[in-house]
What we know:
The structure holds two protein chains of two kinds. Chain A has helices at residues 42-50, 73-77, 93-98, 111-123, 139-151, 169-186, 197-203, 221-224, 227-234; strands at residues 3-10, 19-26, 31-35, 56-61, 64-65, 78-81, 157-161, 189-193, 206-211, 214-219, 238-243, 246-251, 254-258, 263-267. Chain A is α/β, with parallel strands linked by helices. Chain A has a six-stranded mixed sheet, with helices on both faces. Chain A has a four-stranded antiparallel sheet with strand order 2-1-4-5. In chain A, β7 (157-161), α6 and β8 form a beta-alpha-beta unit. The model of chain A has no long low-confidence stretch (mean pLDDT 89). Chain B has helices spanning 2-36, 44-52, 59-94, 106-120, 132-153, 159-183, 186-197, 205-224, 226-232, 236-241, 246-268, 273-286, 290-314, 323-341. Chain B is built from 14 helices and no strands. The model of chain B has no long low-confidence stretch (mean pLDDT 88). Classes of the chains: A alpha/beta, B mainly alpha. The A-B interface holds A 50, 52, 71-72, 74-75, 79-92, 94-96, 98-100, 102-103, 105, 107, 109, 111, 114-115, 117-119, 130-131, 133, 135-136, 146, 149 and B 1-2, 4-6, 8-9, 11-12, 223, 226-228, 230-231, 233-235, 237-238, 240-244, 283, 287-289, 291, 344-347.
Amino acid sequence: MRVQVEGLEFAYNGSSPVLKDIGMEALPGEVTALLGPNASGKSTLLKCIAGILRPRGNVLLEGKELSKFKKGETTACVSYLPQENSSRAILTVFEAVLLGRLESLSWRVNREDLDLSLKALEDLRIEALAPRFLNELSGGQKQMVSIAQALVRQPRVLLLDEPVSGLDLQHELEALDLIREITMQRGITTVIALHDLNLAARYADKVVVLKNGTVYASGRPEMVLSPRAIRDVYGVDCTVRSEGGTLQIIPLPSIRIKSRDASLRCIMPD
Amino acid sequence: MVARAEELYSRIASRKYVPLFSLASALVLLFLLDISVGPAWLSPAEIISAIVSPSSVDAATQVIMWNLRLPVALMAVVVGASLAIAGAQMQTILDNPLASPYTLGISAAAGFGAALALVLGVGILPYGGQFIVPINAFLFAMLTCLLIYSIAKKTGLSSEVMVLTGIAVLFLFHSALALLQYLASDQQLQAVVFWLFGSLLKTTWPKLGIAGAILLATLPVLAKDAWKLTALRLGDEKARSLGINVEGLRLKVLIWVSVLSGAAVCFVGTIGFVGLVGPHIARILVGEDQRFFLPASALAGALLLSAASAVSKLVIPGAILPIGIVTSLIGVPFFVSLILRKKRAYW
Lengths: 270, 347
């Protein structure tokens, strides 16, 4: 399901706009990474695409305006994983993942929902956690459960806000490998907000870089993630290398010199 | 895979049936104890005869059973279940372990409404007759719900604002109540204080019928939204991402539980403890899947109040203590023992 965003603007309760004239596209079978510094509007854009926030401008799913989707239609095809993960619910992991199937759950749980819930846990290799309570898990384990909740819905559009924050290196790579694999196999349109540029370069087919609520650049990672763009957006100097077809972004060591009136960052030579 | 998933889920669900069955069994036993104890003790045989075939027992036993014991014992079950369900849903929709009809000011507002009728004889509706006190209490409980909702709506119905508004309303009505008590005569003051203690003794079949009907009407409404309410505990953001209209659900449940708690409190007075602790006992025993949590809360609340009702008749032979006093006295040790026995965090 192709996702298009055209002329999108959004402001929270009369404050200054968080997103201004956003235009982007995400295609089925591809991972699109949303990049940008803190407060650049990544999470807000994901919520607008998920239909949780009502922005001005257009969000189109397969050419149809999101606002014209009937109640329940959006949730049936779009799965959004929010950044917030502070639930204190007294639920087992299995019950929590089952809740991802909310649309089809009735008082008596059907076999298909149970089957899909276990499959989602197995795909992420966390089925051993199934009988444990959510509030007994570490932050990283909770994050894996949240990813399972998003995947169990079998969405056509998968929106993930910082899905690997709090995960150790192994689980971080496993989770993103799985997300990429599922995206390609099932033809899902996946949009991920990420902070780690190296992960974005490794897993995304396309990156959209936001700066101050506008799109700074978008395209294939090797076209967009240049030292100049990273300095412009993040204010960090770095080198960008390509090794084995994958970009590696390495920040340059620097020292900050402060005087009374100004602050100057100097790059240390190798 | 299917068989394994089903087996896994059955194992998780079966851990909840045992506490539910235990609560239900204990409630039946305590209900029987409640109707057998009092100034005149009734044997199990007399109880069964009086209920199944009233004409087979003497007139005094008939009156004791049908006019005094049964309505009071059933009211304990209905009010206990109503307050615990109301507390459970308030804690759920407001994401706050301290939320209950008492802490949100609904009981205090009902108390003020009752005191208004008892001290000044002022009824909100004309021709209230013998129902002037409960009608006042109920309407003030509803007004409080409306006030909390109106203020919170201005800030997007956030749970924090609703809880803070509720606590502010609690203090407001406590002050207003204190003023009424200050103005009241000795006799009126006694009536107000007795009402505030909470008592089941003025239960009649019509009052029981109203409270019971409201409880029965509320249960299917909440049961229909059981999964959505369970999902709400994952956080507002996640609930929204699952397609839940969080604000709409919060408002709907707030209205229903306000009616439920208003109906319970208006007939028996302020019983604070059950609505707060009943849900926590249920949470410890069965978790927060609402399909289990809802009945477990109802059973835990009914159990607490039935136990309190029985104990209130046993403490001083020949006298009946106000149930509001006894509830906390027997509920706190039970609750603390549960917390100490279970090692997990429960909020």
